[in-house]
Every structure is written in structure tokens, then in C-alpha cells.
Amino acid sequence: MIWTSSRIQEIGLSSLSCDPIRHVLGHETVLENEKNCDPRDMGHKKYMLLLDTRLAAGYFLVQGDHTNARKWAAISVDAAETYFFGEWRDIQPSGNGSDQPPSREYQEINEHWVDSYDWSMCFIAALQQWDTFDRFAHILRDDVRLNIDQTEAHRAWWLYFCGRVRKRPQQEIAGFRQTVMEAKRAKTDQLLLTWVDALFEGSDDELQDAIKKYFQHHRRVESKKPGLGLAIRGSILLHYGEHLGRQFSRPDNSDLYIVEFGE
């Protein structure tokens, strides 16, 4: 995928202020600093590294540099492993005070997750790391908190999709599906929900129709918003559907929005 300069400006890449040279040259320094940091600070350091690496991977992706995009996506996934599974969650104080006892349960419920999780799952799927994908699908608790700027529909969509991946009984996750369906101004989440249902239990025609309608909406609406314009959750479902062996074709021009790194 190589976008023209006009297309890059159209999707607002400049607004991200992404300097790939700083990311490439600064990564070893970041890793060196981590060796001497307080283990309790590792969560914050990995969270910040996740922000940087996804910008770097996205930058190289839209430039058509799949080698560097893949490199930074892999680094991002490695950082996500520590952020979501690392020992820091067992030793970092819970609550807002340093005098609070450590609690992994507290971290799993309250720690910021949504942006890092969206992109991490996308990179994992694009890299075809399906064992890792399955482990990450088991991270989210039903009581994981709603993050700032996150909608309830977005949170519920993730809990529903991961529930399907984990083969949870329908009665356990039906409430999440209902939340998405009844949400106001949640067209993207609802189209992705239809795609999930078609992916797991729909016919090939139903699946193809769900994919088509989602990318039509993404092209008209989501790709016009500030940012890279990539279909993050759409890319996840596309790669996962191919992994499951479902039969479908990619809509015309959808490659402009799909996160993948070539051969």
C-alpha cells in the first residue's frame, strides 16, 4: 500500500507529528533506560512505547515501507506483551496512592487499555501470530472500565468479539451485543458487530455483504477523520476471517485502509 502525498495530507498524517527517524534512533536508548528503571514504572514506560511504535509502524505503512512497518509492529507487540501481561501489574500500587497494596486485579480493571489494545490486536493479526491473538483475546474482563473518550458501544463490541473468539456461551455475552445494537451514534460499532456475527455463524453471502457495508462506511466516514484513516478493527476481522478459512473477497480499494505488511 503506497499512498500519494495528497492522500497522506488528506488523512491528516501531519497532525500526528510522527518523526520516524526519532523513533528509529531513539528505540535503543529507550530499551537501555528500561534496564535501570523501577520495575513498578514499567507499565507507564511500555504504554508510552506503545504510543510511539504504533505511530512509527503506521507512518512506514502508509509510505509503502512494509519492512520497517513490520519491524515496528513487532516491537509494538513485544511492548504490549509486557504492558498487558508483565510482572509490573503485580507490584505497582493500586489506586491513586503509593501506599495502596499492589493488585493485578485492580490493574486489569482500571489501567488504560483501549488504544493499546486496538492497535496491538491489529498488529498481532496482521503478523499472523494467532497463539498470541488468542491469549490477548482472554485479557479483557467483563468489568474492565470504560476509558476516557471511549464509548460504551466500543467497549461492549470488544467484549462481545473476544467472547466469540473464546467460545463463551451466548447467554454470557448477549448483553454486550445488545449494548452495541441499542447505542446511539454507533454506526461503526454496529457494522462491525454485524460482521462478527456473519463471521462466526453467517453464510458466505452474509459475510461478504457485512464486509462490503463496513468498508463503504469506513471510506465515507471513518477515513475522513483526523489520523491515519486505517480500518483497525476491520483489519482485525479481515485477517481473522482469513485465518478461519472463511470464503470472501476484499472490496475494491479496501487495501487503502487495511493494515498488512506484505510478504
Summarize the structure.
The chain contains 13 helices and no strands. By secondary structure, it is mainly α.
How does this model look, in words?
- There is one protein chain.
- This protein is mainly α.
- It has helices at 5-10, 20-35, 42-62, 66-85, 88-91, 104-110, 114-126, 130-137, 152-165, 170-182, 187-201, 204-220, 232-244.
- The protein is 63% helix and 0% strand.
- Helix 4 (66-85) crosses helix 7 and helix 7 (114-126) packs antiparallel against helix 8.
Cα Rg: 19 Å
The total count of helices amounts to 13
Q: What's the number of extended β-strand segments?
A: 0
What's the mean pLDDT score?
A: 83
Shape descriptor: globular
Beta-strand percentage range:
under 5%
Spatial gap, N to C terminus: 12 Å
Q: Would you list the SSEs in sequence order as H and E?
A: HHHHHHHHHHHHH
Query: Helix proportion of residues, in percent?
Result: 55-70%
Low-confidence stretches: 1-18
Q: Characterize the biggest β-sheet.
A: none
Number of domains: 1
> Which structural category fits the helices and strands?
mainly alpha
Please describe the topology of this protein.
Elements: H1 5-10, H2 20-35, H3 42-62, H4 66-85, H5 88-91, H6 104-110, H7 114-126, H8 130-137, H9 152-165, H10 170-182, H11 187-201, H12 204-220, H13 232-244
Helix pairs in contact: 2-3, 3-4, 4-7, 7-8, 7-13, 9-10, 9-11, 11-12, 11-13
